[in-house]
Amino acid sequence: MLLRAYAFVLAAVGALVLGQAPRQTVSLILTGGAVVTMDSAGRVLSPGAVAIEGRDIVGVDTPEAIAARYSGRESIDTTGQVVMPGLINTHTHAPMVLYRGLADDLALMDWLQKYIFPAEAKTVTPEFVRAGTRLAALEMIESGTTTYADMYYFEEEIAAVTREAGLRGVLGQTIIQFPAPDAKTPAEGLARTERFIKQFAADDLIVPAVAPHSMYTLDTKTLKAARALADREHVPVLIHLSETSDELKTSKTTHKATPAGYLESIGFWGPRTIAAHGVWLTPADMAILSRRHVAVSHNPESNMKLASGAAKVTAMRTAGIVVGLGTDGAASNNDLDMFEATRQAAFLAKLQTGDPRAVPARAALQMATIDGARALGMDRAIGSLETGKRADLITVSMTSARQTPMYDPLSHLVYVTRGDDVRTTIVNGRILMRDRKVLTLDESQVLSEARALAEKVKAAVR
Amino acid sequence: MLLRAYAFVLAAVGALVLGQAPRQTVSLILTGGAVVTMDSAGRVLSPGAVAIEGRDIVGVDTPEAIAARYSGRESIDTTGQVVMPGLINTHTHAPMVLYRGLADDLALMDWLQKYIFPAEAKTVTPEFVRAGTRLAALEMIESGTTTYADMYYFEEEIAAVTREAGLRGVLGQTIIQFPAPDAKTPAEGLARTERFIKQFAADDLIVPAVAPHSMYTLDTKTLKAARALADREHVPVLIHLSETSDELKTSKTTHKATPAGYLESIGFWGPRTIAAHGVWLTPADMAILSRRHVAVSHNPESNMKLASGAAKVTAMRTAGIVVGLGTDGAASNNDLDMFEATRQAAFLAKLQTGDPRAVPARAALQMATIDGARALGMDRAIGSLETGKRADLITVSMTSARQTPMYDPLSHLVYVTRGDDVRTTIVNGRILMRDRKVLTLDESQVLSEARALAEKVKAAVR
After folding, report:
1. CA of B372 vs chain A CAs: smallest distance (Å)
2. Is A143 in contact with B451 (Cβ distance < 8 A)?
3. Would the CB atoms of B356 and A402 count as touching at under 8 Å?
4. Do A342 and A408 reside in the same domain of the chain?
5. Is the pLDDT score of A14 beyond 80?
């Protein structure tokens, strides 16, 4: 520490003596830890520093170089920590945290029909969605997620809470054929979605999206209308795709095509589209998605817990598909920890291919950061620590017994680190959590509100 | 809290008024949290209390009933926590924590021949084994493991450190055909093992064991000698079995039999034997193990990370085999967190069978506790919270955002809980960790010692 302070002073004095330009004052400097940039060169600065001005990253370099150029109004010592891009969760249903652990280990139809659907029918209200999103936001901030993609009902409530909590969100209003808590018909759902998009157009944190639930819960007409709306409003599309073998069977029976093939045949695929799961994609499906630049959100924990299967992530990546990671909703995971999703993506790929080299640590981290940003069409703004990008980053403690010794920070981030190791979460230059204290939400109020609502959930499935 | 104190006083006064027997003073009472007993009736007391006298559990009941009968010299308020049996890790190589993250994502032979074998040849000394075991013990105590089964070299050093740290261990001196760090020949290994067994006979915490490495690294003569030694000394046998498809192929080529079949043919199988992995067991193999009362240690994380395959745990359990859980060594996992192993066992079974009902939360917890105790032949002493058993137990915080709301403590213990949630670890009635402060090891010294040795490891594989 003394040595580092000394270098800092030396650099400042040096600048004066040599008549260099005076140091620029910036809002925040993080310095001392290993900076894992996730940029295209794979730079790891150990130690490194990041300078932030307002919502932007203005410098990523050695502590000495940053100290020579910048003076921070605020500074965070990240010694013993990794500084890295915030994690990007490309698929979840935030308010479903209120159903976590409500029912597990059941056949899919029993789980849905005896628990999830009745609970949703009786409990999903704007108030419920707000409380659930607050709990989800608390958990995401605590575990290092800075951007998330969501599909649920009353998405405008989710957007309002997300903005308050300070998280970045690609938030899709769900459209589904049967009566939903926020829309009696798909037409009503489409109209709600359009209003929602206009309400959050040009927001600094929220990207509104269209979220047609899936090909098996929507008719052709509504699927086409959803795509047309997204094209008209220039917003992303989120959809479930080939999650289960049942979906594949149903599609083949009804449409004589795979889900991806059917959606191709009706002209559904287009830019900035994220297909969640893709467990049962065929090589021909992968060729379609690659050609149409459709990204896949891989949800390894949900796919294992619900016994959906093992997505062929290595084959997808080879086919040129951008693959991001997701946790799925907490009803089927049961948490929103992207570090666990990242580890599971590495583990599952090795099992699925029989090759321990599949999805190595660096690839898993890419999927959790820059590839997630690519999947959401936001890689020019987020997903890596580079000058000019938004300041969405986290610091992660690396000194616990289970992280000792450390030969390679990338290995440790994937194989022995959890969300609980995150110390600082910053989005758009704003500190959302400092030393594990969340600053934008009242933790005890969020938790007690969630516990109160859980009583209503219990009553709904009794 | 007030209400609870009131009930306590009321019970005490009631006992006096009614002329009941005076309360027995015991060493420790844990009260207020949900007690997940893992007994054969599956009792969960919410709230509950546990009374401990010396090394034994003397009462498991409601807080009121315990308060009426016992007065604790010391008491721990477990409100907001689960009190449960300590976790039992049935397969690891403790000192290998010093190699964690040294090399990942490699083909098995590259990993072994370029990293693990050279590192072991150049760094494994008694000092290294002691330092590695201290680090492993620290991590195990911090993550709620109270008993572990180990196979490594210089096992007497591991035993000494384990006893100091206060953990319970079934510790197997490894016997292997090629020159090992602690024995040039298998004969020397057998002699070392015999000395080790005699040294730790009748220890309260250490159960010495014979650990012939595997059928593919030992000849028939040594395998038979290892079994004979175990029978003579009445100690357990630990062995790797059917971990990879290569092992299966080698066995079929060399012995015209599966590994389990070959070991059956030479009379190797006997009581108190734990076979680690069992990924490639056939139905005929399972019948042999069941008939011989051989237990299997399932290591789902290692099996996934090394791409060994998915063990057929449901089929094994159906065949009557006792299946415990293990982390394997941290070089192939990369941590010793049994909560992660438990979650992965539930996830992997669902994927392997295609049935989300496979290995439900309760079964996964059984494998991590009472079935682990059965596998080690110690279920009369440990593995559940019951009067008369040793006081090996942990308390686990259940109030984080990711654990909220809580509909079912068993679900949460498996699907959203980690080792870091453990607050208290007690073995044989001794508190090893209180409020996450480990009392039997000097954490900062253990970590700095490990970091110093890591430099030697780096040099060894350079």
Report:
1. 22
2. no
3. no
4. no
5. no
Q: Which residue of A has its CA nearest to B138?
A: A401
* Best B82, B92, B104 residue to mutate vs chain A (most A CBs within 10 Å): B104
- Which of B346, B375, B404 marks a domain boundary? B375
Domain at A121, CATH number: 3.20.20.140
The reply to whether B42 falls in a domain is yes
Q: What is the pLDDT of residues B287-326, one digit of tens each?
A: 999 999 999 999 999 999 999 999 999 999 999 999 999 9
Per the document, the length of chain A is 462
Taking CA–CA distances from B418, the nearest residue in chain A reads A418
What angle separates helix A126-142 from helix A155-165, to the nearest 10 degrees? 40
Cα–Cα distance for residue pair A50/A34, rounded to 1 Å: 10
Split into its structural domains, chain B has a count of 2
Q: Both B66 and B97 in a single domain?
A: no
- Return the closest-CA partner of residue B285 out of B309, B263, B253, B307: B263
* Whether residues B44 and B124 fall in one domain: no
Q: Looking at the structure, do residues A203 and A335 belong to the same domain, yes or no?
A: yes
Q: Is the domain of B22 the same as that of B98?
A: no
The whole model's pTM is what?
0.95
Tell me if the bond preceding A212 is cis, omega within 30° of 0. no
Is B366 in contact with B317 (CB distance < 8 Å)? no
Mutation for A interface: B347, B432, B443, B446, most A CBs within 10 A? B347
> B323-325 and B295-298: which strand pairing?
parallel
Same domain flag for A296 and A431:
no
Range A115-138 average pLDDT: 96
Q: Do B306 and A356 touch (CB under 8 A)?
A: yes
A143 and A18 in one domain?
no
Is B308 inside any structural domain?
A: yes
Cβ pair B142:A412 closer than 8 A: no
Q: Do A401 and B98 touch (CB under 8 A)?
A: no
